[in-house]
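Structure in, sequence out. Go:
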């Protein structure tokens, strides 16, 4: 029992003995004393009650009991303790003393001031000083010289944390009773409260960012008590606020040397190292003890969360949505119920195609936090980001509008505006722009709608209306960057580059924050010729767009960046950017990794909006422009006529190689041509007198079979604007020439036009194309090889709607070897109506008209004639019907027409060039003519063209063309095979595009 460490064991043993042998006064006396010494008062009094039952132990029990209560501070508790004692004992010296003490205390407690003092001191001693302040203030007011009450009031303030008042009371108590027995206690408490008061003042100054004052308070606290760590901790916090990392680190480390359990110092160092690098913070945390590490487990979780978030962001930028989602799952485990981690997880799951899981995550979050504005906003944002605006708006409305924050209000306004704009855009896309504008003008005035109307006006070329709309926006919002950019774009469109540059320079850079605005700036810089500035802008915003989740804004940035890269000579980089644009436009959740996947994604989709359509078509156009193609084709055609000159059977084998060059396509072409016009019919003498050469002047003999073979070569290049080629007619023919052409194409609003200049062969007969040689029995003269030298203009109007119109006007000088010169003017025009107008199927019906005029009729085959159809009047009308369609691997065109034509030919000399005629025959030659006349009649055409994709690299096709008209009946059969070096799984051409003989260009 005398060993403190074994006192509990002694008490247990004595209690066991007392239970077995009750009535042992000595044992009970010892047990009671031990219980009181151990603070187990209730058990001690219970033992004394046992002793009081014994006559031999009662006196000792009374003495011990009274000894335990007589020195209690005067209070209700002390009075009750005396009363309990007197109910147990009725005689003896202790009883008399207790009665006197009880009487005295009851009198004292009848005094309110004394009662307040005693109750206050009792509360302070019980650690409940906060409840004692009013009572002690009452006691001090009653007796201002009561130093004990003043000291107790200081303790009460200290226990409540009111350091300033505690310091004042302790200083007052020491001044009142410098020799009080409580002096040491008061001095100790005064020091403690002065220290913590300075710490509090330092903390307040630090919070107010008054760093110098905070530092002074912490230094003063350190002077008061240089053994406590919190003053040093405060100095570390001041250094941290000053970004003096070295000093902060020293103070925090000193704090931990003074008190390894100071978790604030551990936290300070962790945050300091975290600012320097996550790796350094992780290394520091790993070096901590288990208890220290537990104290900053939130920082450790946050570091892990940041690390996972960064890894997820990298995966997202690479389009690896499923892997990024798994990292967000781990983040959610670290921070369950986090609104924005759940949002990012759901967004990535959606992009990975796991739509049900994504929706389930957001629904679960909504169930956990139904009335949380952040949840409501994040869920609405998620639904909006997956093109579910109506559902997003409905979810926002689950929260009373009185609880909406500014984010929800802004999102709701945008979603409501989106619905109106969506309806308006549908009207506009269907050709009802006026109705769309009327719908928008019915809405409450808004900058967004005004900018939309301005943009529409700008797109249709109504720059005046667009400028007026932008000016109206700027009148309301002088700093509206969208409107300012709109005016820049209009100035560029109107050719006022100086004004555009000035306005572009005046744009406030601080407000051009969105990547879409920066995209428009880059396009303006490009159009103004500042390629370097445009490149800088695109290089800055392209990585940002890749890092963002799919959106219209990021897709437009990547689309235009790809177009810029292609334009500035980086086509392969542009193709990679188009792959990113496909992800951003939500065409695919994952970036395509091979050509087959990429090109398959360029196929059109009826459900696409304008942006997806544009990304697909632009990517397809660039990919095909960069592809290497080799095409081999064979064309057979012929027309019936007279053997020897017009009974034509022709074979053309074509080989063409197309390859990228600059921003267009270069080609090499060779055609192997064989033309056979049959055999002359002879008389009994083996001679023939056909209307050919000079045979009508002197019968011809020899060379009954008329055929020729030759090979032409050509090279050329074309892009969206220019096209040129230069080549030869078949080498090996009687007449060989250099031919070619150049054309320029552009548009004026919806009207497209092409200007061309050319030198082309007339290939409708062997004579016109390659020339023939008069019979050696006569002159043996070569003649023919007619070439058309001239130019023309073509016009077209097609806005993609149901109706279209085209027209062409050309004029040519026609000349050949030993052929009379001629000239012609041709006008052709047509209207067509799209009965079916779908992406992959089109049925059209139309009306075409042709008017031709040739100066001379040189359609004969005699020497000096050209052998080509050349009426002085030609008029025709045709009604064509065409069905074009494509599937995944097939494309075809089936069509035909019925026509009516009228033609008139003048009577012409059979031999127009007398210098070619031998003198002996000239008189006869002058008398011979080819009779003129007119004719009219009906005709028809039928055409079938089909192409099949065999693999991504190989395509085969065939075509049949049958024509039957007055004086003109050619028919064609074509077979071809095409090789794509890169492979193509995109849309099949509609219609198929077989090679056309070079002679027919």
């Amino acid at each position: 029992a005398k060993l403190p460490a074994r006192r509990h064991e002694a008490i247990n043993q004595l209690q066991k003995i007392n239970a077995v042998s009750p009535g042992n006064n000595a044992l009970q006396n010892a047990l009671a004393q031990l219980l009181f010494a151990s603070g187990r008062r209730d058990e001690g009094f219970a033992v004394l009650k046992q002793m009081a039952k014994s006559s031999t132990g009662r006196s000792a029990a009374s003495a011990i009991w009274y000894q335990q209560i007589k020195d209690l501070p005067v209070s209700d508790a002390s009075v009750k303790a005396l009363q309990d004692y007197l109910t147990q004992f009725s005689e003896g010296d202790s009883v008399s003393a207790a009665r006197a003490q009880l009487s005295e205390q009851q009198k004292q407690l009848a005094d309110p001031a004394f009662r307040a003092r005693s109750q206050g001191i009792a509360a302070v001693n019980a650690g409940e000083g906060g409840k004692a302040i009013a009572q002690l203030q009452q006691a001090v007011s009653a007796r201002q010289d009561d130093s004990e009450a003043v000291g107790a009031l200081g303790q009460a303030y200290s226990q409540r944390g009111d350091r300033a008042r505690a310091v004042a009371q302790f200083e007052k108590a020491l001044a009142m009773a410098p020799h009080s027995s409580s002096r040491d206690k008061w001095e100790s408490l005064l020091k403690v409260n002065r220290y913590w008061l300075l710490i509090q003042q330092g903390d307040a100054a630090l919070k107010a960012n008054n760093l110098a004052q905070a530092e002074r308070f912490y230094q003063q606290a350190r002077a008061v008590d240089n053994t406590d760590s919190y003053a040093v901790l405060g100095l570390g916090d001041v250094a941290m606020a000053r970004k003096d990392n070295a000093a902060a680190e020293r103070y925090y480390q000193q704090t931990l040397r003074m008190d390894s359990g100071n978790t604030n110092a551990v936290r300070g160092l962790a945050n300091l190292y975290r600012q320097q690098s996550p790796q350094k913070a992780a290394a520091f945390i790993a070096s901590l003890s288990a208890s220290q590490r537990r104290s900053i487990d939130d920082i450790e979780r946050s570091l892990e969360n940041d690390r996972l978030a960064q890894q997820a962001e990298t995966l997202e930028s690479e389009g690896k949505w499923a892997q990024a989602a798994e990292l967000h799952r781990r983040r959610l485990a670290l921070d369950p119920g986090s609104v924005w981690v759940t949002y990012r997880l759901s967004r990535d799951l959606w992009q990975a195609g796991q739509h049900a899981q994504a929706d389930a995550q957001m629904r679960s979050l909504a169930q956990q936090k139904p009335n949380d504005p952040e949840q409501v906003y994040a869920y609405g944002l998620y639904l909006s980001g997956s093109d579910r605006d109506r559902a997003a708006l409905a979810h926002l409305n689950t929260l009373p509008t009185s609880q909406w924050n500014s984010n929800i209000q802004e999102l709701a306004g945008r979603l409501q505006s989106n619905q109106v704009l969506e309806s308006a855009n549908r009207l506009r896309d269907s050709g009802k722009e006026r109705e769309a504008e009327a719908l928008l003008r019915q809405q409450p005035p808004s900058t967004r709608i005004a900018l939309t109307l301005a943009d529409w006006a700008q797109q249709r070329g109504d720059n005046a209306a667009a400028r007026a709309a932008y000016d109206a926006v700027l009148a309301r919002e002088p700093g509206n960057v969208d409107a300012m950019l709109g005016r820049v774009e209009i100035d560029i469109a109107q050719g006022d580059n100086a004004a555009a540059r000035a306005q572009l320079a005046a744009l406030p850079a601080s407000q051009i924050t969105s990547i879409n605005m920066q995209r428009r700036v880059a396009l303006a810089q490009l159009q103004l010729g500042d390629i370097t500035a445009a490149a800088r802008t695109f290089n800055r915003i392209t990585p940002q767009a890749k890092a963002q989740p799919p959106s219209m804004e990021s897709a437009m940035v990547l689309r235009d960046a790809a177009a810029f890269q292609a334009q500035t000579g980086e086509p392969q980089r542009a193709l990679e950017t188009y792959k990113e644009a496909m992800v951003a436009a939500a065409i695919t959740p994952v970036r395509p990794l091979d050509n087959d996947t990429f090109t398959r994604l360029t196929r059109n989709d009826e459900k696409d909006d304008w942006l997806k359509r544009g990304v697909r078509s632009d990517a397809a156009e660039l990919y095909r422009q960069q592809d290497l193609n080799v095409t081999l084709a064979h064309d057979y055609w012929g027309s019936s006529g007279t053997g020897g000159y017009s009974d034509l059977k022709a074979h053309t084998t074509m080989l063409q190689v197309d390859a990228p060059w600059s921003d267009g396509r270069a080609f090499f072409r060779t055609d192997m041509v064989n033309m056979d016009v049959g055999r002359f019919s002879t008389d009994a003498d083996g001679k023939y007198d056909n209307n050919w050469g000079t045979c009508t002047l002197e019968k011809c003999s020899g060379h009954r079979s008329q055929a020729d073979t030759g090979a032409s070569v050509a090279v050329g290049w074309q892009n969206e604007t220019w096209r040129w080629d230069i080549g030869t007619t078949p080498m090996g023919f009687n007449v060989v020439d250099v031919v070619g052409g150049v054309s320029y194409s552009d548009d004026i609003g919806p009207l497209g036009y092409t200007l061309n200049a050319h030198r082309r062969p007339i290939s409708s007969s062997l004579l016109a194309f390659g020339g023939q040689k008069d019979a050696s029995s006569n002159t043996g003269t070569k003649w023919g090889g007619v070439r058309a030298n001239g130019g023309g203009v073509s016009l077209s109007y097609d806005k993609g709607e149901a109706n279209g119109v085209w027209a062409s006007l050309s004029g040519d000088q026609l000349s050949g070897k030993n052929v009379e010169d001629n000239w012609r003017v041709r006008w052709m025009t047509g209207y067509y109506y799209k009965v079916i107008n779908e992406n992959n199927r089109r049925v059209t019906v139309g009306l075409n008209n042709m008017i031709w005029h040739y100066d001379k009729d040189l359609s004969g085959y005699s020497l000096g004639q050209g052998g080509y159809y050349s009426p002085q009047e030609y008029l025709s009308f045709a009604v064509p019907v065409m069905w074009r369609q494509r599937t995944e691997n097939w494309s075809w065109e089936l069509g035909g027409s019925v026509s009516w034509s009228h033609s008139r030919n003048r009577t012409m000399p059979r031999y127009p060039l007398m210098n070619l005629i031998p003198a002996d025959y000239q008189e006869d030659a002058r008398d011979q003519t080819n009779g003129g006349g007119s004719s009219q009649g009906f005709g028809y055409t039928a055409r079938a063209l089909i192409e099949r994709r065999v693999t991504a690299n190989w395509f085969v096709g065939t075509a049949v063309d049958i024509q039957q008209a007055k004086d003109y009946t050619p028919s064609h059969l074509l077979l071809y095979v095409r090789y794509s070096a890169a492979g193509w799984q995109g849309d099949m051409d509609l219609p198929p595009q077989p090679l056309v003989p070079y002679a027919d260009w």
